[in-house]
Write a structure and sequence with these properties.
13 strands; Aspartate Aminotransferase, domain 2; seven-stranded mixed sheet; 2 domains; 11 helices; alpha/beta; Aspartate Aminotransferase, domain 1; four-stranded antiparallel sheet; about 40% helix
């Protein structure tokens, strides 16, 4: 499986990583937890992760249970060149040990441009910070076709602009292999081989890769199940060999998002994150909605009475607290008439002035 993970990131990201530095983990969640536990202990005088929000709420929870501090900001108003100044305002404190973001973004579904990834990479190089790039929704910006092995365009990644990175790749989303609890943690050769003497406070080795593998991951889970590893290796081999187009298998999420968004907007709702640097937002796994006159918490509560579930954007670090995140994955097309009926009833019960 390590060989196939290394092949995958070469063919679909166009980066080279030693297969020994490609680790199967108990879901991408454990990969992230292992990164926080190890990378944020590299320097005793630093405090923790800078989250480029909005983001996955549980990742901050992981830092909390580790007793680590973190910083965060909502990126929506700092897109493009403005991102550099905002990043530097935190990095100049000398307290940041890692930067984390998801791309495509959970929950807003914005996607960083090459310019923005270059800014993140350059800032990481300047301040010796490791970028933890969450690629849970790998290849799922359907505005471009990232599905062909070894052929541009490649899934955008900060790894083209810095060698200070760790990549989190989920099998649950892109490969529709949810529930088996297996993900991929890809650590750059530079980070793996890096020496950080302060790691000796917690580990037998001051080499990041050794501390991560034999100190953190061994302690957390002793690896992950062989059956899931064999399955993931087989899926990756089929994808790498061009026999399975994994992106085509998940385009349904984007197609459902188009239909669902229209149901919401036809019934008085607004799309919260509706633009991606002046371009129409991609349609994919998530989208965000609000309703005039209601806060996110109020809307979430009201939705419960109509049998509609979502999460509040406030929990994701978003400044758009009027909004909710909707997910396209679990609802089936056969259930669309039920959703539409409930939204129409909601709109009738909550007339917009």
């Amino acid at each position: 499986v390590k060989q196939e993970i290394a092949r995958f990131v070469k063919l679909f990201l166009n980066i080279d990583v030693d297969p020994e530095h490609c680790l199967p983990t108990v879901g991408s969640m454990l990969g992230g937890f292992a990164c926080f536990m190890t990378i944020n202990r590299m320097y005793a005088d630093r405090e923790g992760t800078l989250f480029i929000d909005p983001g996955f709420p549980v990742q901050k929870q992981q830092c909390r249970v580790l007793g680590q501090s973190f910083m965060s900001f909502d990126v929506y108003n700092y897109r493009g060149p403005k991102l550099r100044e905002k990043l530097l305002s935190y990095l100049k404190t000398g307290k940041v040990s890692s930067i984390l973001y998801s791309n495509p973004n959970n929950p807003s579904w914005i996607c960083f441009t090459e310019e923005e990834l270059k800014i993140v990479g350059e800032c990481a190089n300047e301040y010796d910070v490791v970028v933890i790039e969450d690629l849970a929704y790998f290849g799922m910006d359907f505005r471009k076709d990232y599905s062909h092995p070894g052929v541009p365009p490649y899934q955008p990644t900060v790894a083209h602009y810095t060698d200070q990175y760790a990549l989190l790749i989920s099998s649950s989303k892109a490969f529709s292999y949810a529930g088996e609890r297996i993900g991929m943690l890809v650590v750059s050769d530079a980070v793996w081989n890096k020496k950080a003497p302060d790691l000796k406070r917690f580990y037998a080795s001051d080499q990041v890769g050794m501390a991560l593998l034999f100190g953190t991951i061994y302690s957390l889970s002793s690896g992950t199940s062989h059956s899931a590893q064999y399955a993931l290796a087989a899926v990756l081999k089929a994808v790498n060999d061009g026999k399975l187009n994994f992106v085509n298998e998940v385009r349904e999420y984007g197609e459902k998002a188009i239909i669902m968004k229209k149901m919401f907007t036809d019934n008085g709702f607004q799309i919260v994150y509706d633009q991606d640097l002046g371009q129409p937002l991609a349609d994919g796994f998530y989208f965000t909605v609000s309703y005039p006159g209601l806060s996110g918490d109020q809307l979430l509560r009201e939705f419960m009475y109509y049998g509609i579930s979502a999460i509040a954007l406030a929990t994701t670090g978003s400044e758009r607290t009027e909004g909710l995140r909707a997910c396209t994955s679990l609802i089936q097309r056969a259930e669309f008439p039920v959703l539409e009926k409930r939204l129409k009833q909601f709109h009738a019960d909550h007339p917009v002035a």
